[in-house]
Specification:
Blueprint: H1 11-24, H2 37-44, H3 48-61, E1 64-67, E2 71-74, H4 77-80, H5 83-91, H6 99-123, H7 126-130, H8 133-141, H9 145-162, H10 168-174, H11 176-190, H12 192-207, H13 211-227
Antiparallel strand pairs: 1-2
Helix pairs in contact: 1-3, 2-3, 6-9, 6-13, 8-9, 8-12, 9-10, 9-11, 9-12, 11-12, 12-13
Length: about 240
């Protein structure tokens, strides 16, 4: 069994986490005004520097809106948030997501994978596609869920690089954290062998230049993670 280094969160990280949880739990509603920084610092027994830095980070994540000379308000984070907002939502309540959120993430994966497969089959050379086998071999050898999730991501990211579309690799990278979280959970629930077999099957279709079946396979196994036999989360 692998162990990782234990590190204590900073006061700013604790402040951010507490406010995120307060907002995501609904204890603070969208549009509600926060107390002043001085008041928050006194209530939470931290410095105003910690409060100010935490508020700035929460604003960057889309949870708060800072209105100069007026105050700080809870923002409509689902409308104005970013990938960082999504990661915070995923980590809330021990990482348990509802099916709506999971469906949204996986549907985006389907869109990205469809275009990546089509373009790569059209433009990638045989040697480029064969080079993906290094990731297949790594998946076969590793039995660690976190490691396998990272390898699977690298496989898809490298495939996107072969597509010739300059934006696809950037989009994959933008979704890296939520994708890694989902596939790590998938491995812990169903074993690393399943992720290996799924990726191997896609690789087989790519080698055969069979975009149609590659897309069909991706959509089948990703759909199963929403409401099929290999669901990742439950309501």
């Amino acid at each position: 069994m692998e162990f990782v280094k234990i590190s204590a969160p900073s006061l700013k990280e604790l402040f951010v986490r507490q406010l995120e949880n307060t907002i995501l739990s609904g204890k603070m509603q969208i549009g509600e005004q926060l107390p002043s920084e001085r008041d928050l610092a006194e209530r939470m027994e931290v410095s105003r520097t910690v409060v100010n830095a935490g508020i700035c980070e929460l604003a960057r994540k889309g949870f708060l809106e800072i209105r100069p000379r007026i105050g700080t308000f809870v923002a409509d984070y689902r409308r104005y948030g970013s990938i960082d907002t999504l990661v915070s939502i995923m980590n809330y309540n021990g990482g348990m997501l509802c099916k709506t959120e999971i469906r949204s993430i996986i549907e985006m994966r389907m869109v990205l994978d469809r275009l990546t497969i089509i373009r790569s089959v059209e433009t990638a050379s045989d040697s480029e596609i064969v080079s993906l086998n290094v990731f297949i071999e790594k998946l076969c050898q590793s039995g660690n869920p976190a490691t396998n999730a990272e390898i699977a991501f690298e496989f898809h990211h490298e495939l996107s690089m072969m597509s010739g579309n300059s934006l696809l690799p950037l989009l994959y990278t933008s979704f890296k954290l939520p994708i890694l979280s989902l596939w790590e959970r998938y491995c812990r629930l169903y074993g690393t062998e399943m992720l290996y077999q799924n990726t191997l099957k896609l690789y087989t279709f790519l080698k055969a230049r069979d975009a149609a079946n590659g897309i069909a396979w991706i959509e089948e196994y990703l759909s199963d993670t929403i409401n099929g036999k290999t669901q990742i989360y439950n309501d």
